[in-house]
Structures are given as C-alpha cells and as structure tokens.
Write a structure and sequence with these properties.
Catalase HpII,  Chain A, domain 1; six-stranded parallel beta sheet; Hemocyanin, N-terminal domain; ten-stranded antiparallel beta sheet; 26% helix; 685 residues; alpha/beta; single chain; 3 domains
Length: 685
C-alpha cells in the first residue's frame, strides 16, 4: 500500500477506495523478482569467472532486461501527449426533467472523476505549449457505470463526416517523407488539406485563435463538439451539447511566449496542473449544458447535428448544472494517465447519441484504438478504467484477463444457471436506446444544411476583440509563411477571403501572394460576445509572480508585499543570480528558488522588481533589466519596489500602463494586486 501524500487525500471516494488495493510501495521492503523470489545481487550479471562471459542461466538478468524491453506501449495516434488528475463532480441541481443519468438526479450528489488533458497533435515527447486544440476528457465513475465525456478546447471539428478523419490526421501529422514538423500544422500537407476541404474553415479559424495557446489547462474551456441526447424516465428526448467552463476564466499565452516556453519548459502545462493541486489550489470547472427540444432546431440557420458548427450561447443558452474539482494528482503516470481509456460510446442510462456523423464514427474508432494500444479487450479491467459498480457478463478470455469467473455457464440463454446474469428492464436501470424513427435511402453524402462553410467563421471573426483579431492574423501569417507551395498559399487566401476580405488581404501581403479579388466575402454581420475571451473572468489567484531580488533589500516593504501576494493565492518564485540565501538590510533571509540562468521571464504572469546589491553589480543589474523588459514587452504587469526604478528603463513616453511604483505610493500593494489580476495591458506602445 502507498504512503505518499496523495494516498489519503480522497478517503471515502469510491474510486480512490477501489484503487487502494492496487497501490504498492517499495519503501522498507526487500527486493524481489516478479515471481516474488528475493534477489541477492542487483548490480552484476552472472559470469563464468570475474572476466568471463555471461551465463544463460542468469534468470534474474533476463527477467529484468525483458521487462525493460517491453515497457512501452503504442502511443495514441492523436492526443498522444497529455496528463491527468483525479477529482470529484458535484451536481448543482436535479436534471431529472431532462435525463435519468444517475449522477445528475440529486443536488449535492458527488461523483468521482478522472480527467486527461492532451494536445491534438504531436507525439508523447512534444511540448505542452505547441499551438493547437487541446483534448479535455472526463471519466465519471457513476453508480450505473462509467460515463466518458470527451471535449476539445474549441467548439467545432475539422470535418463533418468521419470518413475523412484519417485523411485529416495524416495531413496534420508530420509529413511522411521526413517526419517534419513535429506538433505543428505549419506545413504544406495540412494547408493543402484545408484548402481542398472547405468545411475545415471554421475549425482553422478557432485553431489559429488565442484559444489554442492556453495559459493553463486550469484556464481552458471544454466543448463537446458533438450533439448528444438526454433521455428522461418517461422516454422523452432532448438534444444536448456540453461545456466545461473554468472558474478562473479562459486565458492564453502569446504565440512567441508559447514557442519560447516550449523550449524552456516542455512540461509547462502539466507542471502547472501538478503544482496547483499540490498547493491546494484545486482547478475547478462548471459543467454547462445547451438543451434543445425535438423540432426546435428548425428555426436556426445552422444544423444542430453539424460538428463544424457551434451553438451560440446567445441563441441556445448554457445552463450550469454542476462543478468539477480536480483535487488529487496521480500516483503513477503510466498506470493512470497512459493506461486510461476514454470512449464516447461509454454512456449510461439517460444519455444517448444523435445522428451527428462525426460522433457516429467516433463510437467505433475509440474502442478499436484502445484494443490496439492496450493490447487486449480486457483494458476495462485495468484499475484506472474499472467501474465502481459491479460488472457481470459473459465476456471471457483475451490477453491479461484478471477476473476469475467461477461459473460453469458462459452463454445466454441458458437453463443451467437460470439465465443469470439476466438483462435489466429499463425500469430496473437497463440501458435502452432512444427509439428514434429513421428512414431514407442508403447514400454517401451530407445534407445541404452542412454546406454553409463561411457564415459561422465570419461570426467568430466579428465577435473577436481587436487584439484577438491581431493574434489570429499573426498566427495565420506564421502558418502560411511556412507553406512552401505558392499555389496553396494562394488558395488559402482565397478561402479566408470568404470569411473576411480585409483579414485575407493583410495575410496575403505578409505571405507574398496577390490580395484576394472578386468580392467573395460572406455577408454576415452577427456577432456573439460569448465567443471572445477578451472579457473573461480575471482573478489573481494561482498566477505566478517572479520576485527579482538581491542582498540588502528593504525587509519591511518586501515582507509586506510577499504577505499580500500569498494572501491572494499568488504563487511566487524568488529569482536572483545564484541559489542560496539573500539577506535584507535588517537581517531577513530569503531562500532563492530560481536563478537568471534556470528560469525565464515568459514563465511568469507578473514581476515584482526589488533589486539589491551583488558582488557582480554590473552583471546583476543587466540581468535585472533584461528580465524586466522581457516581461514588459509582453504587456504583463510589473511592481517596482521603492529603490528599484533603475532596473526598468521606461518613462511616461514609453507608456507605463500596468507598471506600479512603490515610491511615495501608499496604495502600492492594492494597485499591484489589481494589475496582476488584469494580466495584460495591450495599450502599451
């Protein structure tokens, strides 16, 4: 059994209680083989003499090496890089009017969950902060079985039919002749696919937006993309889409920040999640649902089954029905994160599928890929995948079967076992599919209502703030500048001109092609504030502030600010020229946690510039100035201690918005906390 800090955090949670029986610790134990035989020597192979050859009878060496050779399993074909955490979902109000899903029946009901965040593109060894959509998958361990809710950080998919899914991922992945570029869509194959499959336009607009460079997984929204059904006890169905809304609001990195961080700390997002949970600043997300009655969709100008279209909140309101809190880190990455298996087909009574063509394809693909990746149809018996409710069926055999069935009968119908285990009637909790009436000819086609490729991308563009539009243009310029084919760049500009001619013209000028002609821009003026993150909720809590400090600092002033930062839940790092302790004028000692060499300004949301003395004064001062200016040029807030003005060579002419000075300022502490919460000051010159 384990004895780590994680081990006892969620006592009473049924999933954690279940996992307890599988936890082991080596602390205080004797080394053994996999068969339980105690090992006497774990350093040297068995030889014929000290300098002789290895002997084939060294059974423990062969066991150790064989196991090492087989430690890896196939990585996920998409969403390969990811990380996860345990948590709990609490229902805010009963949803029995719409669904009989057990975890949504009673206000205050709590359900164990496991969440995996991931990058759509890139292999397991890529960086967390590459530009692109993120996966956000949640496994609910309910009393009626496991329910998997798979979401993305953008609300639309690249395709409206599953048949081309393999083509889309092939095009997105590194090009096959040289396996370049890694974890990037900035190459010819991807953009060739996009311009020849115009249904991807809406996805591309979102994929190039600030949404796909999240500041943190804790500050990232989730969208179900697909349309599902709620079904209540009476058998009445409603259409539903889901959202996770982060309590901290939706916030992003800049493109160059993300690229720099990718090199400095490839594990930036997973480290951020791990640290927040370890510090007790548990990530929280509210679950929202958009519900439509049967037939209500006829009044909309979009098809509710089209996964390349979103349901605007202003048209179909989001009702918040619960909150998820992630409150325990994993004990072992491989056992929990790598082996967890999500599948949109994992539903429980009260949740059913629509005719969304991408969803229909996903129902097959996920189970198939887990069979390949985990090597057996018994992957549901892996501890992280086990349900907390009993499992009884006639499934048998397969690699790594763990349960031992003691029954003679393994089929149905039977008389020897009185037909047990027996199916359950819907009134007893048996799953039954909604009896939707279906009729039509067998065709390979999509409805005409799916073929409006540019209206919603235009609405998205209209809804963005000026800064968000500039960032989107910058991302598109970056991407298309990497495309070597002139004709593909031309086609991309023509495609974008259908969305907004002005945007396309600016990008065309940057990427060296003729501006669009022909007046092809779609005539749409609608906009929806919910699509922009410019007005996102802003809190200082869990933001990271770097404190640049040297010897002989003002003990009282610095101590007061440190206390205020911690009071507001702000994470801090003390940064100086070397590790060790630094001492204030009155003898206060502070332990340095980072140095100018080991950290980088782009890892921080704000700076508190204190300064001080150093034996290498000139070098120290230059490092202080460089660090400060890098934060300043990324529009981030800076607090300047009374004697630290020399480290920030800015003036009123340079625009000091977001820079707060302590000198002669009795309100410095409050003002500094306020600008930290604001995060960015785009008006700077």
């Amino acid at each position: 059994m384990g004895d780590s800090k994680n081990f006892k955090k969620l006592s009473g949670n049924r999933k954690t209680d279940q996992l307890n029986q599988f936890r082991v610790t080596n602390k205080g134990k004797r080394l053994t083989s996999n068969e339980g035989v105690k090992i006497s020597n774990n350093e040297y192979t068995l030889k014929a003499g000290v300098r002789g050859p290895n002997l084939m009878e060294d059974i423990h060496f062969f066991e150790k090496q064989m196991h090492f050779d087989h430690e890896r399993i196939p990585e996920r074909v998409v969403q390969a890089r990811g990380f996860g955490a345990h948590g709990e979902f609490e229902c805010y109000k009963s949803m029995q009017q719409y669904t009989k899903a057990c975890f949504l029946q009673e206000r205050g009901a709590k359900t164990p969950v496991f969440v995996r965040f991931s990058n759509l593109q890139g292999n397991k060894g890529s960086s967390d902060t590459t530009l692109g959509p993120r996966g956000f998958s949640t496994k609910f361990y309910t009393e009626d079985g496991n329910y998997d809710l798979l979401m993305f950080s953008v609300p639309v998919f690249i395709l409206h039919d599953a048949y081309k899914f393999a083509d889309a991922i092939h095009a997105l992945n590194p090009e096959p002749h040289n396996d370049i570029p890694q974890a990037s869509s900035a190459h010819d194959n991807f953009w060739d696919f996009v311009v020849n499959n115009p249904e991807s336009t809406h996805f591309v607009m979102w994929a190039m937006s600030d949404r796909t460079a999240p500041r943190s997984w804790r500050m990232m929204q989730g969208f179900s993309i697909n349309t599902f059904r709620f079904v209540n006890e009476s058998g009445k169905s409603t259409y539903v889409r889901f959202q996770w809304k982060p309590v901290l609001g939706v916030h992003s990195l800049l493109l160059d920040e993300a690229q720099i961080i990718a090199g400095i700390d490839p594990d930036y997002h997973r480290r951020d999640l791990w640290d927040a949970i370890e510090y007790g600043a548990f990530p929280e997300y509210e679950l929202g649902v958009q519900i439509l009655e049967e037939g209500e969709s006829a009044e909309f100008d979009f098809d509710i089954l089209d996964p390349t279209k979103l349901w605007p909140e202003e048209v179909v309101p989001v009702g918040v029905i619960g909150k998820m809190t992630l409150n325990r880190n994993v004990d072992n990455y491989y056992s929990e994160v790598e082996q967890v298996a999500f599948n949109p087909a994992n539903v429980i009574p009260g949740i059913d599928f629509s005719d969304d063509p991408i969803l229909q394809g996903r129902l097959f693909a996920y189970r198939d890929t887990q069979m390949h990746r985990l090597g057996s149809p018994n992957f549901n018996e892996i501890p992280i995948n086990r349900s907390v409710c009993p499992v009884h069926n006639y499934m048998q055999g397969g690699y790594m079967k763990q349960f031992i069935s003691v029954d003679r009968v393994n089929y149905q119908k039977n008389s020897l076992a009185n037909n047990f285990p027996v199916p359950s009637h819907p009134s007893e909790g048996g799953y039954t599919h909604y009896p939707e009436k279906v009729e039509g000819y067998k065709v390979k086609a999509v409805p005409d209502s799916f073929k409006d490729y540019f209206s919603q991308p235009k609405i998205f563009w209209n809804s963005l703030s000026f800064i968000e539009k500039q960032h989107l243009i910058q991302a598109l310029c970056f991407q298309l500048s990497k495309v070597q084919s002139h004709s593909i760049r031309e086609k991309a500009i023509q495609m974008l001109s259908h969305v907004d001619a002005g945007m396309a013209t600016m990008i065309a000028d940057y990427v060296g092609v003729e501006p669009p002609s022909g007046g092809n821009q779609v005539s749409v003026t609608s906009y929806f504030p919910s699509l922009s993150i410019a007005n996102a909720t802003k809190y200082p809590i869990t933001l990271r502030v770097g404190i640049l400090i040297g010897h002989n600092f003002d003990d009282e002033e610095v101590g007061d600010i440190i206390h205020a930062l911690k009071k507001h839940g702000i994470f801090i790092d003390f940064i100086s020229e070397k590790l060790g302790t630094i001492t204030g004028v009155d003898g206060t000692k502070i332990t340095v946690s980072q140095t100018f060499l080991t950290t980088n300004p782009n890892l921080y949301d704000a700076l508190y510039v204190v300064g001080g003395s150093s034996k290498r004064e000139k070098k120290f001062n230059q490092e202080m100035m460089n660090f400060s200016m890098e934060v300043y040029k990324h529009y981030k807030p800076i607090g300047v201690a009374t004697n630290a003005e020399k480290y920030l060579p800015v003036s009123g002419e340079n625009n000091l918005l977001g820079v707060v000075f302590a000198k002669n300022n009795p309100n410095f502490k409050d003002e500094f906390i306020t600008v930290i919460a604001e995060r960015r000051f785009w008006e700077r010159v």
